[in-house]
Amino acid sequence: MSTFGSPGALPTTKPTPPQRGSFPLDHDGECKHVMTTYLACIKRVKGVNEDECRSLAKAYLACRMERNLMAKDDFKNLGFKENEPSSTPKPAAEAEKGVKGELRW
């Protein structure tokens, strides 16, 4: 009997994961303490992008990179500046300078 339109046996292919956005889960809880502190911070500030929470997010990503739970990458590629923002405001003229082609929010 036929299989009604089935092309037959298809060759098996190995799926390739995406370069970003997919990484091993932390099954052993190696970075759980940093993650729970970060989530508590986000809850406390009601989702606002606070410097304190950004430093915790950076610490969480660093923990994952140190334990090979994600690929090592520069923090500037992950949305962090070289030196995290300080509490001293920049003069208005200096704050307006940018790099050609730079996206600003």
TrEMBL record:
Key words of the record: Cytoplasm, Disulfide bond
Composition skew (Basic and acidic residues), residue ranges: 93-105
Main location: cytoplasm
Any one annotated GO CC term: mitochondrial intermembrane space
Keyword Cytoplasm among record annotations: yes
GO BP terms: mitochondrial respiratory chain complex IV assembly
Superkingdom of source: Eukaryota
Chain intervals for the UniProt region annotation (Disordered): 1-27, 79-105
Cellular compartments annotated: Cytoplasm
Function: Required for the assembly of mitochondrial cytochrome c oxidase.
Similarity remark: Belongs to the COX19 family.
Official protein name in the record: Cytochrome c oxidase assembly protein COX19
Origin species: Neurospora tetrasperma (strain FGSC 2508 / ATCC MYA-4615 / P0657)
